[in-house]
Fold each of these.
Amino acid sequence: MIERLSTLFVRTLREDPGDAEVASHRLLVRAGYIRRQAPGIFAWLPLGLRVKRRVEAIVREEMTRVGAQEVSFPGVLPAEMYEASGRLADYGDTMFRLADRKGAELVLAPTHEEAFTLLVKDLYSSYKDLPLTIFQIQDKYRDEARPRAGLLRGREFTMKDAYSFDIDDAGLDESYGAQRDAYERIFRRLGLEYVIVAADAGAMGGSKSEEFLHPTEVGEDTFVVAPSGYAANVERYVSTPGEPIDASGIGAPVVFDSPDTPTIDTLVAHANAVVPRADGAAWTAAHTLKNLVLALTDGAGEREIVVVGVPGDRAADLKRVEVAFGGREAEPATDEDFEKLSGLVRGYIGPWSADGPVLGADGSSGVPYYLDASIAEGSAWITGANEHEKHVHSLVLGRDFTPDGRVEAAEVLDGDPSPDGSGPIRTARGTEIGHVFQLGRKYAEALGLKVLDQNGKLVTVTMGSYGVGVTRNLALVAEASHDERGLVWPEAVAPFDVQVVATGKGAEPFELGERLANEFDAAGFEVLFDDRVKVSPGVKFGDAELIGVPWIVIAGKESADGRVEVWDRRTGERTPLPADEALAFVRANRRG
Amino acid sequence: MIERLSTLFVRTLREDPGDAEVASHRLLVRAGYIRRQAPGIFAWLPLGLRVKRRVEAIVREEMTRVGAQEVSFPGVLPAEMYEASGRLADYGDTMFRLADRKGAELVLAPTHEEAFTLLVKDLYSSYKDLPLTIFQIQDKYRDEARPRAGLLRGREFTMKDAYSFDIDDAGLDESYGAQRDAYERIFRRLGLEYVIVAADAGAMGGSKSEEFLHPTEVGEDTFVVAPSGYAANVERYVSTPGEPIDASGIGAPVVFDSPDTPTIDTLVAHANAVVPRADGAAWTAAHTLKNLVLALTDGAGEREIVVVGVPGDRAADLKRVEVAFGGREAEPATDEDFEKLSGLVRGYIGPWSADGPVLGADGSSGVPYYLDASIAEGSAWITGANEHEKHVHSLVLGRDFTPDGRVEAAEVLDGDPSPDGSGPIRTARGTEIGHVFQLGRKYAEALGLKVLDQNGKLVTVTMGSYGVGVTRNLALVAEASHDERGLVWPEAVAPFDVQVVATGKGAEPFELGERLANEFDAAGFEVLFDDRVKVSPGVKFGDAELIGVPWIVIAGKESADGRVEVWDRRTGERTPLPADEALAFVRANRRG
């Protein structure tokens, strides 16, 4: 196949698009691969579509290799099935909704668990029909609050979603393992580095889930890695509780005046000045306890106010708090929320006051109280005393106050202990490139998918769900593989295998270019031929670098002597050669 | 590629689905190709997806052959661009609409003229960039009032839509011709009979348009064919006006009592009884003039009341009326409409009364009047006299009454004259399988797509748009090619090239089947292998006939002797053969 730049529908741009935050977005637009249609919604031009097809082909091959069968569902589905599973509420505004002319409620499907479950229920009825894994490669829609970074977080995106159906847990383990293996092969073939982390199941529900994270600075996720190699999404990081402390030597809580201490730092300085420690050491932020008043909202819109205490030297991580509270949305309480509370003195909130417990089950305020999981029993704290301009010190956990429970609430930092005891962790940024879930029986139960087992008894099917974002992965390949002059595609997904550039005066370069294009084509290469006349060598080379085809064969000045240059886009190396040797040279040096 | 029926995700059904009106719908569901998700919305199972891919591949090849380049647009687009082109109003309820979380209005694109126009405007600026034809194969959405017949009129369907961009009319003619040729090749390869008819451009706008109709009893369209081969959509049929008649011998109009004449038949009988013709011949329905009070509604919802007169021996064809009135929707006036009219006596409406003209420019009612185009000047009519229980005869067109204009309003019947004078036409049912439009400058003007011409002058680009319904064509292939036992796929689009059926006692049939499956696979055939154990030969053969793979190789009773039967699904012929000859036999007898 030969495509000619003189007719190819492409226009390379000199300028970066104004809204591009990341390299992949910038370069895919500038090189004429994609074009924005609406926020987070793109059209695919011929170059982009070629790369997308190659990524899809890799995904499809690896799915087929593990016996998954391809189907294709509509993007528009009845809202009813999402109502039945509870996801209509879980997704909330993120799900695009519409009604048809008869008023029937529809959604643009964000994923298809419900529809696949119902289809299998519709057609299958026996354990003999299982195991089954079916998948589709399809456009999905999510009305993200903040679409960003081009294809990395779009509102329309192409995804491979697979669903497994098994009669028992052992079967699910096997289906899950097969998909997990396929994912590892997919990312290796795409040349995308990855770590597999224990993940939060989010709106998907279910029991076990792992995320494939691609480490990248442009990522939205943070994950932790232990010296042992153990990795986890930061939302799933489990902190190590401090060893219980013997507080018998600590005196009773002491309330002290604390005017003008709006921050932890001012509070610590003030405490060191007015209530110095008995042992002569200084109070630090680590001795203070911050109490955050949070509103938790569930899918049905039910709002609960709780207070969460974290050590004063750490920020709270609301994403971790949300996971700790079963996926409820967490946000700081509003003025309106505060008006409804009594017994809490804003700015001086703590679990205790001179009159006794304030927060938690026995507290006077009636507001539930949770403490960060890392805090040790018997530890003593400086915290609010629930009086205007008053704090307390020597307030001992377990002696003076008791929370309703422990939660993972504090931010995770480099050097924190790893849950597997292998030493200090490090944190890194990454982006999800794949996600595998053991859904278990959640959807099958909600939608009534049962089959007869070997004893003729109806049993609920157990399911898995497995997603790879095709377009996001494509963008990450571009992100991981570019330089300041343009894209540098790996052979596996490049839009063309080779680009032939004819440039120079007279007919020779163009005749030689034509001959070379045909020669590569005949050898099974996909060829982009820059046959444009009246375009300067500089523009041609610049376009070639921007477009990023791995091998560029230049029929230039020495065409009349039958000589060309072969240009390796990745290394930048240019090798002068007799034209007859170009094909053999590229064949010998290809990386894929 | 070998797929095994023991694991293939398919369930053949004994019963027809309750909602299936046509054979393709019935059989595609029963044989496990598709499954309904909502009215007019289907999921594609593995068998169906395979056929769909093959149809798409044919379309893609023929597009590429004529130089069209593939792109891919989102299904969700901003409503704004459809507002700019006027199509938001034109499509009305047929366009699915939604809003995002920020209230931005979006649509599910019914076709993509606007987005393609804007993309070319965005990237191209010179005549040197043209001509350009770009296409996509993509899922479209239309909220049909009456989705029907399975895939034949769905609310979600896959379509190939192509758009051409040219600097001048000659270029458009060429681009249009190339697409038209490609369409002829596509339908020939699909084995779908077609006629090309002059068509109404409908909501698409533009100047010239032709429709590819596939003649079929399940079609929704009627078209006419002349002895010369000329064919037209019935909406575009142009009637031949009768020769002007010398009415000088006809006396003045005569009003007569006409109680109890609710129908044309009763009116004619009554007229023959009370006001016999002077020449002794009988009045017939052809002497009466029916006046229909119609409400015309445009895209903006503007409603106009008009009266349309057609000969009493013909029904009015409201689809033809709609085209005649520039695509406005036509429906019988409602009681509410009538309340607003004055001077028209319902049941006795005519253009004239004893007091003078009633309808048309000079009429006392002020209601516009249009007459069917076939009616001859000077013809005399029996029609309503605008008085309760009174009609008039000898009312002469041009002498006693004058319409505001002529329209194509009467139904078209077999035997009507062909517009090209080649003799009587015949009418037939068909379904649109492709449509080519010369849009001209309508969209380019509305959206400002101009490029510099050779003289450096900005000129508006001229466009064409070209659509083929992939899923509808697939259904029509099934419709045209089945028998009472199941589908009979032509080689070009069959889900598999050959089906190997192992059946019988012992291991031999299964071992031989396995060997044959591998042999066909190695020879490049796509193989479906019925390797199911404990399934009776009857069920296996029934499933094979239902699924409709063109060649079925049966490894049965004589497997131990190395003998098989090759079964031609189309003719039903079974040929016993040594197993070693099966491949050669199928190769020699394939039709594609």
Amino acid sequence: MEQQAVAVDYQAVLEQIAHDVSPLLGSGRPAEYIPALAGVDPARFGMAVADLQGNVYGVGDWRHPFSAQSITKVFTLALVLAADGDALWRRVGREPSGNPFNSLVQLEYENGIPRNPFINAGALVVTDALQTLTGDASSELLEFLREESGNKELAFDPEVAASEAGHGDRNAALAHFMASYGNIAGPVPALLDHYFWQCSITTSCADLTLAARFLARHGLRADGSRLLSRSQAKQINAVMLTCGTYDAAGEFAHRVGLPGKSGVGGGIVAVVPGRCTLCVWSPGLDAHGNSVAGVAALDRFTTLTGLSVF
Amino acid sequence: MEQQAVAVDYQAVLEQIAHDVSPLLGSGRPAEYIPALAGVDPARFGMAVADLQGNVYGVGDWRHPFSAQSITKVFTLALVLAADGDALWRRVGREPSGNPFNSLVQLEYENGIPRNPFINAGALVVTDALQTLTGDASSELLEFLREESGNKELAFDPEVAASEAGHGDRNAALAHFMASYGNIAGPVPALLDHYFWQCSITTSCADLTLAARFLARHGLRADGSRLLSRSQAKQINAVMLTCGTYDAAGEFAHRVGLPGKSGVGGGIVAVVPGRCTLCVWSPGLDAHGNSVAGVAALDRFTTLTGLSVF
Amino acid sequence: MEQQAVAVDYQAVLEQIAHDVSPLLGSGRPAEYIPALAGVDPARFGMAVADLQGNVYGVGDWRHPFSAQSITKVFTLALVLAADGDALWRRVGREPSGNPFNSLVQLEYENGIPRNPFINAGALVVTDALQTLTGDASSELLEFLREESGNKELAFDPEVAASEAGHGDRNAALAHFMASYGNIAGPVPALLDHYFWQCSITTSCADLTLAARFLARHGLRADGSRLLSRSQAKQINAVMLTCGTYDAAGEFAHRVGLPGKSGVGGGIVAVVPGRCTLCVWSPGLDAHGNSVAGVAALDRFTTLTGLSVF
Amino acid sequence: MEQQAVAVDYQAVLEQIAHDVSPLLGSGRPAEYIPALAGVDPARFGMAVADLQGNVYGVGDWRHPFSAQSITKVFTLALVLAADGDALWRRVGREPSGNPFNSLVQLEYENGIPRNPFINAGALVVTDALQTLTGDASSELLEFLREESGNKELAFDPEVAASEAGHGDRNAALAHFMASYGNIAGPVPALLDHYFWQCSITTSCADLTLAARFLARHGLRADGSRLLSRSQAKQINAVMLTCGTYDAAGEFAHRVGLPGKSGVGGGIVAVVPGRCTLCVWSPGLDAHGNSVAGVAALDRFTTLTGLSVF
């Protein structure tokens, strides 16, 4: 009954998953508030796995570019922890956020400290911290993703960034509200610019599985240098598991049982600590903003391989 | 870098932990609203590990009886899932609850459906379900704990149950409130009685590590029979990780990285799926109601053994 | 332009009003959770005015009995202030309550102190206070209403009281919740009994205009003895204006501009301080629980007579 | 017992009040977040009454200039109702707001519609409406106050406006949040500028009693022309009574019993419909932001004259 570190044929598993989830393709709806996202074909599907050595396996649209959106929050968080250690945790919590209507009252009740780095308020604080540390938060993030993925073509999408800015009143409200508590260090308009640029990065399943490998490698980057301490890598995995999929983190832990982070572009990154990283993409979203086929594919992965953390 | 299923000398690890946490003993304060708990010496400490075969290792007060309190919620939940499958999840959610002041407004906002089975409102629904299914929820629970632990002496503590009932107005409010939404099937006073009796069960680290083994054994009971499906066992581990330690679930995931469930009696049960179960007890509580030395001991355990899920 | 204390022909005004609101009769819906109320013909309409000397004028069903419901909260409040002075205001506030979904979170945020005596939580505290002061809150109220109205036939309606008790889980939740903060002195079940009995009193427009006259007479009872100080009578009028018509108090102040208190039986009592009292009854309720034709009739009254406080 | 339209010797009453409240002078604290206000001597006191014909009576510092702050919200509201009738009420409610911590969650719950025009969110909507209607909201307001008071020297205070802008993050958050619901028509930065300029107007008790006379004159301006319909004037008085003194509107109705609007500059305007207007100023504020001596002075006024609405 002891769990074994069984060898897994990732390519065969991915092909099985692509077959199994095919009835779901086209379910759900792409994010509609960003025109550049709304036009994507909801039936697309791609999935990739990267092992610890950097071998990548893929199926379907696994090399097709899509908008990373909130998945970038994982990397921004890692960069701030790498540069500044635990200081960030005085400005943002590590607890799940409860239901969505509380976001603002929670900020008020807890004096401008967001519950975790993956809700929008928390991600704004993380970006503000990175901006203070580096002077150019969005470029810092882009450079990191290029290095870890080995894809020097990765770039911002100005059209997507402009769409986000055009619907940015709620994020502006959050940033000003936290500023009124002294929890935003820089000017709000510049912060919002960097925040929207980060979200707009176009990437692929192949890129993201490679870029996230430090989470499976207990903090080590692609080149073997240390980005995070073992403990910090574990912290990010824990936050992903408890807070990574909007208001469905419990449901995701329940079905998939892996640390994961989703974005409204339809992507989800997941981690099997000590084993591999995964990225799945399919643009049709459920009511919580998570990819319908993406969650199902990860569910199948853990069922087929037994590689859940539970 | 691949994680190995290394053999662990549990006894040596426990002794190391007992040494390491000794400076913390006496920190924190026992729960004060229950006189029978308030009188316990806060410097007590015990810890036990049970492997999948039922070998138990222990240190300190690992055989000393203490009040199980909310740890029993794990077992009640398992009994309802075992008896009635997924029907329960229509009456209670699986998401973390956010900060405590939301408990009631959340219930109102979500029409009487508690967020998860480990907040008090959710545990009341689970007990109500078990009461409907069996006619005697508290006896059913006691019998299960006796069988799995092999300790036929396990018993309710009438003094503790009476103390709880004497401070039961808030639980009565929750139960009536959910009843107003039709989410409580039986009469409220009887429900509260069973709820308080369950919390009052006196047990030990040795008992609880054995009783919780079905969670590490993917659903199999001590006698090898199946209590839960593999998927159901995983569900409970996921709910423990995301919701098991009151409003500090994120912090616990962050530090310890294991499914766990605490009680205000000072105990915490934790699970390493496929490997072992743990129980630690020390009555001094932190501001969230979790044992100070208990959380530190589990933190040491995962650090010393690498047996975190992340 | 100075406002004159013009003589008003109340009978002519009432007949004009009855004519003007006739198109509205049958609009709205009777309260449905109490079977005895749900069966009342929604097209009924009655209205009465009592001057300071006790002359009563009426139109339509002004002598027809109906269920007083929350209108009784005005009288219970007056009895507690009369018996115990300002001590009550340490247990209940005098501020409007904001929107309904806050009722419980507000209680939690403000440590079990309800915002005002006319929301259910506040009325429970007032009844608890009257019960402590007199030992029989509901009989005390009934006796007062009989004396002031001169109608010795006034009585509880056991069927209505039983209906209320059958839907009493939310009030039980409120009472237990406040008890957990120490803001309920007596046992909850007895409190709920008295509360439901009070609401069940059957009365008429004629009775209630007479019984409420102490509010227009600056605290003097029908027999000329003093029930309340001038300041206390003013306090109750102020609370009626700001909190008397559920979540539509602002709208009522806006349209009618008089202190008023409504009940889900379809009645509304209003006061022109120093001039007269009014009671209108029509069972069809709007979305806030106020009588559709009743509010319109009071609106007409202030328009026709200029007797608004604004 | 009928209330009489007794002639009142306002000058004698004011002198009596000044004597009676003198022990309170220096109590409370000036608003501290605006340096220009924080430096005002808290022991200052002035009070004025204007009758319907425009005779003004005063005592103490009744001609001394102070910062009008939120008192201006009454006049902005009147200008919008005058120009655009009831259309405003589709964008802002007329109900009291409950306790302060709800401001944001209430906006979220009610889809960006503020509860009333006197909370900051509501006043931002009113200023946005005036800006849309006139193209220069702050100048429009200043001109109106100059005409009604006859004081052509009235002016903005640039230092105060700059202080407000320097602490404007919370108002910026509210404006962006409502903009995200489509309830702000113009650009947020310009709206905030006009809002802060309005608040900064320096005026005196003498000026404000004269400027507010249309509320006592059922809508007629100083020159006899009609600003508001009788019904609209009544509406504003009703909103002042139920919502005019921050989170202490119930307490103010209770003690004073007049429509009133306070500002953190220490001023309060009150109205006796059909009789007179009042303005009192004393910079020491209570915990709710209302002038300590100002509320006491108005309390004395209604006690001495009987001119409460209740």
